[in-house]
Amino acid sequence: MRQMIVGNWKMNGLCAASRDLVTAVAEGVAAMPSPPQVVVCPPFTLLAQLGAALKGTGIFLGAQDCHQTASGAHTGDISAAMLADVGVEYVILGHSERRRDHGELDETVREKAVAAAAAGLTPIVCVGESEDQRASGDCRDAIGWQIKGSLPDGFTGIVAYEPVWAIGSGVPASSQDIADMMAFIRAELVRQFGAAGKTIRILYGGSVNGRDAATILPIAEVGGALVGGASLQADTFLPIVRAAVEL
Ligand SMILES: O=C(CO)COP(=O)(O)O
């Protein structure tokens, strides 16, 4: 399976600089032989503008959340259909920062995944254990419950494994930890979805950088990376994309 590199810009990006960033990323990717699939997920305010800028580049547009209902009285929220309307094809759901900042529960994430798929978007559902859960040896249980609770029946999207303690720390999880958790997640997906669970792409996220990407991406079951901080500049994002080409 061709690898996928997803840039999650989080709450960063203003109009002018963002246009320059996606232009530089698109040029860099265009110069690579058989590049991986690249998805850029800017904040809502930039989606329409960057969607236009990315047309014809082969780079996909993603968003960072959607509401679980199609429309209605939900002040400040954005529906999946609104995202599709401006050219969005992927949506990150259940990121640990949304679970933390907005109290999102597995059940809501599951409803959002259903809404996203209904609007024709591919959900990227995030799971990951906290530092406490890892320290107490509960991380498999925690991830198992998140998978069970956050993925709807018939799920055909993407799962991102992002250990909360690795996000923004500057140090990714060790290769051994990633390999162990990837194998566990794959087994859970197969248990929940049968044969279909074998083909669900699993991304790793948490302090991925250009140096470590070359070690992380070849790990069994890793189908790509979900990149935060390093996706904010072309000169830190492109080496990660390149590491996926060189596999
Ligand atoms: O949360 C992440 C991507 O969704 C990871 O962020 P960092 O790459 O900044 O650790």
Please, could you describe this protein's structure?
The chain has 247 residues and is of the alpha/beta class. It has a single domain (4-245), classed as Alpha-Beta Barrel (TIM Barrel). It contains ten helices and eight strands. The chain has an eight-stranded parallel barrel with strand order 1-2-3-4-5-6-7-8, surrounded by five helices. Helix 3 links the parallel strand 3 and strand 4. Helix 7 (139-150) crosses helix 8. The protein is globular and about 45 Å long. The protein binds 1,3-dihydroxyacetonephosphate (13P). 1,3-dihydroxyacetonephosphate (13P) binds next to strand 8. 1,3-dihydroxyacetonephosphate is lined by residues 8, 95, 162, 167-168, 205-208, 226-230.
Short structural summary:
42% of the residues lie in helices and 15% in strands.
Uncertain regions spanning at least 5 consecutive residues: none
Query: What is the C-alpha radius of gyration, as a whole number of Å?
Result: 17 Å
How many domains, in number, for the residues?
Answer: 1
Main pleated-sheet profile = 8 strands, parallel, barrel
Amino- and carboxy-terminal Cα gap? 11 Å
State the helical fraction: 40-55%
Strand-residue proportion = 5-15%
Task: Let me know the number of strands.
Answer: 8
- The CATH topology is TIM Barrel
